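so my prof wants the structure for this chain in the tokens format not the other one, which i didnt know existed until like an hour ago. anyway here's the sequence
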Amino acid sequence: RIININQLVEETLRNIGLNVSYRKYSGPNDTYITFFEVNNYDEDYSDGTNEIEVHSLQIDLFTKSDPTQLKKDIKQALKRNFEDVTYQDLYEVDTKTYHFTFRCYFYEEKE
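here's what i got, hopefully its the right format
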């Protein structure tokens, strides 16, 4: 079964209640999530064929409100389907926006 990684991210974060968009968001809300695949590579070779495809992802939360609960909710949601979930806490001075950059991995087994 081939995984649609973008669909998996969107489904994973659906219950957070925010707009979730691939790469960019152009709507009216100050709080939203964007995501993209940072890297993709094969590992665990057997007889010259890869058995695992690794999806390295970045999920970005942007908000002008207190991000405390949202960052916890997003991290918890990501941990349900992804591995090695980490985040970096940033602040964008020019737009006065909190920006949390989550990184995680999905290990897709090949058949």
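also thought this was worth mentioning. The CA atoms of residues 81 and 100 lie 19 Å apart.
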